[in-house]
Design brief:
Blueprint: E1 2-3, H1 6-26, E2 32-38, H2 42-58, E3 61-67, H3 73-85, E4 91-94, H4 104-110, H5 122-129, H6 139-150, E5 159-163, H7 170-179, E6 183-187, H8 194-200, E7 203-206, E8 224-227, E9 231-232, E10 238-239, H9 244-248, E11 253-254, H10 261-279
Parallel strand pairs: 1-11, 2-3, 2-4, 5-6, 5-7, 7-8, 8-11
Antiparallel strand pairs: 9-10
Helix pairs in contact: 1-10, 2-10, 6-7, 6-10
This protein binds the ligand Nc1nc2c(c(=O)[nH]1)N[C@@H](CN(C=O)c1ccc(C(=O)N[C@@H](CCC(=O)O)C(=O)O)cc1)CN2.
Ligand LMY7XDAE binds near residues 94, 96, 118, 139 and 258.
Keywords: Amino-acid biosynthesis, Histidine biosynthesis, Hydrolase, Methionine biosynthesis, Multifunctional enzyme, NADP, One-carbon metabolism, Oxidoreductase, Purine biosynthesis
Catalytic activity: (6R)-5,10-methenyltetrahydrofolate + H2O = (6R)-10-formyltetrahydrofolate + H(+); (6R)-5,10-methylene-5,6,7,8-tetrahydrofolate + NADP(+) = (6R)-5,10-methenyltetrahydrofolate + NADPH
Pathway: One-carbon metabolism; tetrahydrofolate interconversion
Length: about 280
């Protein structure tokens, strides 16, 4: 069984991004990412700190706007309008989740598609679904595709099962696997026979957000298992959506949690940001 090491692949991706950032700097362009965080969600604070540290490592200038939880939607939209107009800002990211009184969709839609570091804008989502290249793609599924490539797993002709239909992972993941010629099934909480679907999958991507929902015994012998889940148990332990040990005993390759897809999500944000910066000088 091959353990697909997200930390190792992320380090390689960061090295590539650092080279691109230096090349842009030599042309007078300093790549910049602006992160907007609203409220005091402790996990978001940690993730944003991590993203800023990543930026520093590869030479991207990062700026954080940390707004109080009471920020109104109008105030947030006004900030995004200012960032859209600022030529020093190549990428904009609004950390999710947002406080409940803010309409998340309206905020994501307000980010210019040309500065959409997360790839969540409807224009970029639409571009992915019809195969337009050169636009930012959601970081988590893009990271999964890079992991498959690094592990020399070609999705072409394989049965791929994506468990979870979120806008930021499940749906774009299905589109990316389809683009690479997999036969894709998208399962979710109301799928009738999840065990049966998992048992037929050559490539399984679990992104449903329920601790160890996918049992190792369901996994097809030799399958490639990608676990996007990050679930904190009562004892503080972090586990994925797949029963790791039992799945690893049947899989040909598997990602760990932590140290799998999470670091790749962060690395692909850097890729999106430098690609957006490159588009300003082409
Ligand atoms: N605007 C966005 N908001 C959110 C996104 C996103 O892609 N864009 N995704 C998640 C959170 N997230 C990035 O923002 C993220 C979460 C976790 C990790 C990670 O590296 N996890 C580690 C484990 C960390 C731990 O111990 O708690 C790992 O898997 O090894 C990266 C990115 C929601 N919001």
């Amino acid at each position: 069984m091959n353990l697909i090491d997200g930390k190792q692949i992320a380090a390689k991706v960061k090295g590539e991004v650092a080279t691109e950032v230096r090349a842009l700097a030599a042309r007078g362009v300093q790549t910049g990412l602006t992160v907007v965080r609203v409220g005091d969600d402790p996990a978001s604070a940690i993730y944003v700190r991590g993203k800023r540290k990543d930026c520093e490592e590869v030479g991207i200038t990062s700026v954080e706007h940390h707004l109080p939880a009471t920020t109104t939607q109008a105030e947030l939209l006004a900030l995004i309008a200012r960032l859209n107009a600022d030529p020093a800002v190549h990428g904009i990211l609004v950390q999710l989740p947002l406080p409940k009184h803010v309409d998340e969709r309206a905020v994501l839609d307000a980010i210019s598609p040309a500065k959409d570091a997360d790839g969540f804008h409807p224009f970029n989502v639409g571009a992915l679904s019809i195969g337009i290249a050169g636009v930012p793609r959601p970081c988590t599924p893009a990271g999964v595709m890079r992991m498959l490539d690094e592990a020399k797993v070609d999705p072409k002709g394989k049965r791929a099962l994506v468990v979870g239909r979120s806008n930021i992972v499940g749906k774009p993941m299905a589109m990316m696997l389809l683009e690479r010629h997999a036969t894709v099934t998208l399962a979710h909480s109301r799928t009738a026979d999840l065990a049966g679907e998992v048992g037929r999958a050559d490539i399984l991507v679990a992104a449903i957000g329920k601790a160890e929902l996918v049992k190792g015994a369901w996994v097809k012998e030799g399958a490639v298992v990608i676990d996007v889940g990050m679930n904190r148990l009562a004892d503080g332990k972090l586990v994925g959506d797949v029963e790791f040990a039992a799945a690893a005993a049947r899989a040909s390759a598997i990602t760990p949690v932590p140290g799998g897809v999470g670091p790749m999500t962060r690395a692909m944000l850097l890729v999106n940001t430098v690609e957006l910066a490159k588009r300003t000088v082409r």
